[in-house]
Amino acid sequence: MTLDDILVEMKQAEKIVVMAHETPDGDAIGSMLSMKLALKKMGKEADVIVKEFPRTFAFLPGANTVEEKTDVEKYDLAISLDCADLKRLVGREYFEKAKKTIVIDHHSTNMMYGDINFVNPVSPACCEILAGMFEYFDIDIDVEIGSCIATGIITDTGGFKYSSVTAETFEFTAELIRKGVNISDIYQRVLETRRKSNFELLRRAMNRLELLEDDKIAFTYINKKDEEEVHAEIGDHEGIVENGRSIEGVKVSVFIREKEENLYKVSMRAGNGTNINVSDICYVFGGGGHPRAAGATVAGTVEQVKEKLVKEIKKVI
Ligand code: 5GP
Ligand code: MN
Known about the structure:
Blueprint: H1 3-12, E1 16-20, H2 26-41, E2 46-48, E3 77-81, H3 92-97, E4 100-105, E5 116-119, H4 126-136, H5 143-156, H6 167-178, H7 183-191, H8 196-208, E6 210-212, E7 217-222, H9 224-229, H10 240-245, E8 252-260, E9 263-270, H11 278-284, E10 288-289, E11 293-299, H12 302-314
Helix pairs in contact: 2-4, 2-5, 4-5, 5-7
The structure holds guanosine-5'-monophosphate and manganese (II) ion.
């Protein structure tokens, strides 16, 4: 499938819906909002489906236009962004009922569940794929679209520090600066600003952090009770897993967060300087992601989930 096929579908469709993965991060939000704005430049009004919008990204253009609920039947085209599989897609019902579907993503574990799938696993962010795509479509990337794209690139590269960053990442970013995008402002808003509740969650998680298997595995967790007690907001758990990975000698950092009773959302990161593929480990549990950052959902108590995960991680460290 080529970019031209995608352009044909976008031009043909009258009613378009855009969506991304659950608990959306900066790349998911940036991808959806930039796509909505780009479609607008093509003369198309698109609905964006977001159930949980992190307040961190409320400054982005179009953040106030996300849909709560619309008619499931009405779409000619559904576009899924930054989402590897249907089961994590928020608005899956819209996707499944749409006449035509497009998947644009950068996860190597993408299940290719669209009619058209445009997946580039070496791209550090879905937003970077979109920047190239909009350029190819001759859509002017203005300050508004550019700010959304920069948000995805900055968050998914950890502020340009992950090994996924390429010369192209900086070239796209340089172009965004020329267009007037304030990279420093976005960087500070999305990576350098903590809500108090986020800090309190981090404090609890750090107090509980255990170093297992000769200090090669960092493990910590957060329960629903913690989130209630600190009055956590959507997105407050983001970034906690990164702290374990920065400890010298740690090969895998694990953070688990209670989703519902006896069900935990797992975040896994490869330690600095290792070549462990955490996506492969998460795949064993029905999850996936990227080689150095991945996730899954695992059933059990904290102790049970920890035991299951450590058993798999031990095989590769
Ligand atoms: P995080 O730990 O930040 O939630 O996720 C890290 C990376 O793994 C992200 O790219 C995210 O999309 C992906 N990921 C997280 N959980 C899952 C999952 O359950 N399944 C799949 N396929 N990918 C996941
Ligand atoms: Mn992403």
